[in-house]
Amino acid sequence: MLGLWLTGCASLPSEVDRPVSTALADPTETRIGRAVQARAAQAETHNDSGFALVNSAELAFTSRMALINAAEKTLDIQYYAIHADETTLRMFDALRAAAARGVRIRILLDDFNTAGKNAQVLKLAFEKNIELRLFNPLPGGRGSLFFRILGSLKDMDRIQRRMHNKIFVADNAVAITGGRNLGETYFGQGESTNFIDADVLAAGRIVRELSRSFDLYWNNPLAYPVESLMTAAQLEAMKPPPAAAGALAAPAAQATPVNGETSATAGRNATGGAPAKPAKSAVRKVTALDGSVSVAEPLPDSTNLALLEWIWAPSTLLVDKASKIAADADAVEASQDTTVDGLLQLMAEAKSDLLIVSPYFVPGQRMMDQLAAIRQKNVRIRVLTNSLASNDAPAAHVGYARYRKDLLGLGIELYEMRAEQEGTLSGFSSLGSTGSAGGSRASLHAKIVVLDDSLLVVGSMNLDLRSQLQNSEVALVIRSRKLSADTTRLIEPALAKGAYKVELENGQLVWRAPQGSQLKDSRTEPDASLGLKLMLTLIGPLAPDEML
Question: I want to staple 421 with a disulfide (CB 3.0 to 4.6 A). Which of 159, 311, 325, 442 is the partner?
Fold first, then answer.
């Protein structure tokens, strides 16, 4: 009865004021734009876009902070999830400071993960010079994700379609894109779980393409200004009590505090207080998967781009149209390729080697046929994905598991991330690192493809039917032997030392223990609880691939 009442009463506003705005027209009006222009000239190349691997979780945080601090005109930020926690609180303070010096800030956030304490992120919408819009919002209150979903049952097809894009652009001159959302678990600061993830810094012409895609989403009818959905007073009323909020309270001199916590499901779609405690340091000594030790250095001032190793290379942008999420999306899909479709077309061109990193790997029959065709050309295919124990969305593992024997039968090499790593794992070798806190759980979240050691793809997409058919995604395609080789060298230690290799022995699955781990081979899902294994058995035959 409650469900019927919620379904009947929840609705979105019909009259919404959405002022049209666009990215900065001339990036060279800013110091960072002129620095990019000068760096391109020094590179002595005809390529108009430069790239640098974001090679640690620490660098992923400090590079975003550096771009906020360097921006003079605009910051455009588009994400699937932004958590309210100590790490993002530091970022929010920097955004307020940028807005105070006159930077126009536009934040476009998918609405799925804005319930509970994470709703406090939306207070940024009421700050001067900051606009925040929610994409494809769910109607109803924000106290509980469960009741928000319950109130949207009549529109389940639409709420299953989420904006999964991740873009961070400063002055339309330098951008970061990849797999990371914003939150402590994406920057190696989580107490119990950290995501292994990857980003790329981009400069030049490709950034303007990213900005154009941002503008199309920002000005879309599915983007609702926060003010059209709630008031500042309503958000204030949802503020956690002092006992829960005090540790995250902003200084009194700052604007209204942004309080909250991370969500265990943010990596995947899911059906006035005490003085602030110091945020965890974003620059720490880190131990990589291969055992080496280094110190993560903060990104240099963004106007001094020469201090980074920038590779100027041909590139293109794969990005879904916002219409993929619209009410009539099913009718639109037949007439347009998706980001995952474009990626599969690239993969079909492989001649010798294909390295795939996808945390949620649910190929479906069409993708299986394409992988089989690639293998018929004797192309080596290696796939790194989550194990059942490391997967933050175990239901996704259900879809993967039903294809595992067939994938191995094609000669595809499968590696599953080991959940219990030594330290706080937040990336591959230099692409991310293990930190000083022991006993943390690692969960793969990076989305990477390396083709023939010459083509690198980094983006927000998974190789699954949800990314292909339901979510909107974005990816950079970079043709560079150096970047491709560097990325492969960073991933391969994870294959050898941080993952189980899955093989077939007499028709049965065997998980080979990682090198040097002192673990034993297993004939059942390693490190997984009995409950997870039972779920795999019960749900496996029933759940459709596109829902996993």
Answer: 442
Which residue bears the tokens 């991330």? Answer: 417
**Which residues touch 71 (CB under 8 Å, ≥6 apart)?**
30, 32, 98, 103, 170, 171
pTM: 0.86
Cα 72 to Cα 203: distance, rounded to the nearest angstrom = 16
- In this structure, what DSSP letter does residue 218 have? H
The count of structural domains within the chain is: 2
Question: What's the token pair of residue 267?
Answer: 């990596």
Q: Are 282 and 61 in contact (CB under 8 A)?
A: yes
Domain assignment present for 406: yes
Distance of CA 353 to the CA centre of its chain: 25
Euclidean distance between CA atoms 162 and 269, whole angstroms: 8
Matching residue, tokens 């077309």: 345
Q: Both 92 and 219 in a single domain?
A: yes
Ramachandran bin of 473, using left for φ above 0, alpha for ψ from -120 to 50, beta for the remaining angles: beta
3-state secondary structure (DSSP) of residue 276: coil
Determine the length of the chain. Answer: 548
- What's the start-to-end Cα distance of the chain, in Å? 28
Helices (H), 15-138: 31-42, 57-70, 86-100
Please provide the average confidence, as pLDDT, over all residues in the chain: 82
Residue 130 domain-assigned (yes or no): yes
Rounded to an integer, what distance in angstroms lies between the CA atom of residue 425 and that of residue 440?
Answer: 7
Domain co-membership, 268 together with 336: no
Query: 194 is in which domain, residue-wise?
Result: 30-277
CA–CA distance, 182 with 88 (Å, rounded to integer): 7
**Cβ atoms within 10 Å, residue 270:** 16
CA distance 402 to 280: 41
Q: Among 246, 277, 308, identify where a domain stops.
A: 277
Residues 6+ apart with CB under 8 A from 527: 387, 389, 390, 418, 419, 420
Give the closest residue to 81 by CA, choosing from 114, 41, 115. Answer: 114
Query: Do 195 and 343 lie in a common domain?
Result: no
Give per-residue pLDDT as tens, 194-242: 899 999 999 999 999 999 999 999 999 999 999 999 999 988 888 877 6
Residues of the chain scoring pLDDT < 70: 1-10, 242-308, 327-336, 421-440, 540-548
Cα 402 from Cα 541, distance rounded (Å): 8
Using alpha carbons, list the distances in angstroms from residue 373 to 35, 347, 404: 45, 10, 17
Of 78, 131, 103, whose CA–CA distance to 24 is shortest? 103
CATH number of the domain that residue 247 is part of: 3.30.870.10
296 forms beta bridges with none
**Alpha-carbon gap, residue 404 to 396, rounded angstroms:** 13
- The Cα–Cα gap between 318 and 332 comes to 17
Could you tell me which residues are beta bridge partners of residue 499?
Answer: 417
| Residue 458 CA from chain centroid, whole number | 10
pLDDT in tens, 172-193: 999 999 999 999 999 988 888 8
Helix (H, G, I), strand (E, B) or coil at 324: helix
- Helix (H) or strand (E) holding 211, with range, is helix 205-218
